[in-house]
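WARN no homologs supplied; continuing
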Amino acid sequence: MSKVPLTIRGAEKLKAELQRLKTEARPRVIEAIAEARAHGDLKENAEYHAAREQQSFIEGRIKEIEAKLSNAQVIDVTTLPQSGKVVFGTTVVLADEDSGDEVTYQIVGDDEADIKEGLISVSSPIARALIGKEQGEVVTVRAPGGDKDYEIVEVRYV
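OK structure emitted
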């Protein structure tokens, strides 16, 4: 499996979730299973089956996070040369060529993307159009609604 890029913030969020699952959720569900077992007949015990299902979900999520972290290439954008080029992890201010509206995005890994917070996936059409371009350039983003032109107003390495 190839390395998956992650920002420092994204890696920290995954580590925090992993820690919470291992120290809080896992012990809580083990306790719930033990309590349900004490009620007797397991075949018709809905609490037991629900707790086992929850345990399965938690263990699956733990394995998923551990796999992501083991295959992650954590990139600290502040240590990259500040050349004005758009690269993974940079924050980009774009101006819509038609309306003049400005938007700000940070290019992050697929698991970190959250458009409401201005975090776009490195594999999104906007990010793919921006990568390698420089401040001042105009890029055309191919979107389902048609092509959009944006000027790169600012590239920040924060």
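The longest strand covers residues 146-156.
OK
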